[in-house]
Structure formats: structure tokens, C-alpha cells
Amino acid sequence: MKNLTQNIRSISGIIVSLGLLLAGSIQEVSAQAAANAPKLTTTIQDRGNPGAIIQVNGSNLNRGSNGLTWAGQAPYVVQMTGQNGQPVNCFFRFVSTVRIDVTIPATAISSRIRLVQGNYTSLINRSIRVTRAIPAGKGVLTIDNLSQYNILGLQLNGVEQLPANIGFLVKTAGELTLNPGQYQVRATLGTFDRNNPFFFSQLTVTVTNGGRHLMSVARVTIAQLMTNFRPSGDWNSDLVFGNDNAFHIRSVRFNSNGTYTLRELRAGNVVVNIESSTYAELDWPDNSIALTFRLGNRTVSLFSPFAQFVSTVGRNNQNLTLTRQ
After folding, report:
1. Position 236 confidence tier, pLDDT thresholds 50, 70, 90
2. Does residue 186 sit in the same domain as residue 254?
3. Which residue of 104, 238, 273, 321 is most buried, as measured by CB atoms within 10 A?
4. CA atoms within 13 Å, Cβ hemisphere of 274
5. What burial letters (b/e) apply to 161-193, b meaning 16+ CB within 10 Å?
6. Residues 29 and 123 occupy one common structural domain
7. 3-class DSSP assignment, residue 51
8. Residues 227-250: what's their mean pLDDT?
9. What is the DSSP string of 106-151?
């Protein structure tokens, strides 16, 4: 499990509530979803008080005008997350097939507005931050999950704040109302199993009376992954019997600046540089247990637990398995 340390900064004018969502409660649309399914995309506003109207853009939003439904499903509903962590329906007004106006419910907390129709769900691209006053004698810590994994656990000074099976989904934001003081914050990142996380983010934050503080959990980069959050990291093969009738090891040294060196480690502590080039992320979907990256002119697949990959880095383009050191 890797350590991802983020900075914290003070902000003003942003007050949001704890964005708890039941893990797995939202079913994302699959690539095979019908082209005429109703879809939410963007909003004009990014925050508002309960009762505020949020303009939501999308496509195929025809329910309000003529009662048509998609794929025989019941009419869709529009939801946010409520203060108990459960979905709460929003009142909305149909404007056109590409726009609805959504009213923030009284019990809503900061979350992404979503359209639900049967087992199909479509979400806007960012959280709506529900603004409420800070209680007297308290401060506010906002957690904005910008990473590609859910926040499965959130510890403050070693005490877990999130119930089991509840966390911040990707691209949601939430808030903790806290007593003033210093807190060690640790966010555990993964898919849907807190006992098998992939990464964690940690920092120290001082909450002030009436203060608003933001903790942004950023995406994990391919450089951070390949170097284990250090300036460089080595991935070595097992012993390989070479054309020189001797055993050697092929090693890729990844540097945090996006470059790498393919080396051959020979007997007698002899190191021979074979190739130097760059590497870069190709595809790392949200909550995925697999990703692909470019290693020079090679395409490499890397699977959870992200500690081993196979590529043509051996002599004469031989496939070798390389393991994180």
C-alpha cells in the first residue's frame, strides 16, 4: 500500500456536509447502454443552499415533457445523498431534452446529482457542495476526493470516522465538523473493500474556530506508482541465463520525472545500461484493478496489487516478469 501525502489549504465561502455514500449503491452505466438513455453531464453552479435551484445539463431528458421512458423502465428520479448517507429524491423541473432544473433537498449533503432509472444511473461530472453555517465553536474540514479510487476509510488521530461499507466515492466531496485542534488525517483509497486498500493519503491539519479547511486527495500518478512515491524505484526480473552463458538480471529503474533506464545486472556488481527513454500512463480507469502504461515503445498492463508486470525487456525482446523491489 502506498503513501500519498497531499497539502491542505484554507478556503472561504465553501461549507459542505459529510458526503457519505453506500459503497456499491451507485451502478454506473456500462459501455453497452442504449444511446437514447437519459444522461446527466454538467451543471452551471457548483454549490448552493438547501432549496437552491441547480441547472443540470444532459441529453434525452424527455420524461417531463411527454412521459416517454427509456428501455421500458419506470420514469427516472433525480437524487442527491441525504444526511443519513442514503439517497434522497430531488424535486426537478423539466426544461428541455438537454436541461432540467434541480432543487437541492433540505436534507441533502454535498454529493453528485444523479439520475436513477431502474438499475441504470447517470451522474453529473462534479459534486454540488451544499452550503450550511458552521456551528459555533467548531471548524470545518472538507474532503474532496479527486483520486481515481473511493475513499474507504478516514481516520482522524487514529480514530475511524466512516462506518463500515460507507465512504466517499470518486469525484464526491464531503465535510467533517470538528472541534478546533490539530488532526492527523489518513484517507484509505481502494475499490469497495476497506480491508484490501490500494493507497492512502495522509496529512496533518489544524482546524480553527470558524475556519474552513480543504483536503484534496489527488489522483495517483503512474510515476508515483512505479517509484513507490520516491525519486526512483527499481523493478527486477528473476535470474536469466544469457547468451554469454552467465546469469544476469534485467532491471528497469523508473524515475519520478517520467524517464526510465533498462539495465542489465551482471556478476561482480557490473551494471550495463541497455536503454533509456520515457514512460507515461495510457489508461487508468476509475476504481480499476488494472491499468496500462507506455514503456518506451511498449504497452504494458499492470494489475492489482500493482507489484509485477510482464514486458519485452529481455534480450532479443524476450518477455520477462519484473517485480517491484
Report:
1. very high
2. no
3. 104
4. 19
5. bbeeebbbbbbbbbbbebeeeebebbbbbbbee
6. yes
7. coil
8. 89
9. TTEEEEEEEEEETTEEEE-SSPBEEP-PPPTT-EEEEEEE-SSSEE
Identify the CATH number of the domain in which residue 53 sits: 2.60.40.10
DSSP track, 268-316 = TTEEEEEEEEEEEEEE--TT-SEEEEEETTEEEEEETT-SEEEES-SGG
Counted domains in the chain? 3
Q: Tell me the mean pLDDT in the region 178-184.
A: 96
How many CB atoms within 10 Å of residue 91? 12
pTM (2 decimals)?
Answer: 0.70
- What is the DSSP secondary structure assignment for residue 227, as one 8-state letter? H
- Give the per-residue pLDDT at 83: 72
- Residues near 316 by Cβ (< 8 Å), separated by ≥ 6? none
One domain for residues 170 and 142? yes
| Selection from 146, 124, 310, 296 nearest residue 221 by Cα | 146
Structural domain boundaries enclosing 92: 21-129
pLDDT in tens, 82-110: 876 678 999 999 999 899 999 999 988 88
Residues 195 and 231 in one domain: no
308: its cell numbers: 509485477
Q: Which residues pair with 150 in a beta bridge?
A: 190
CB 145 within 8 A of CB 172: yes
d(CA 156, CA 179): 12
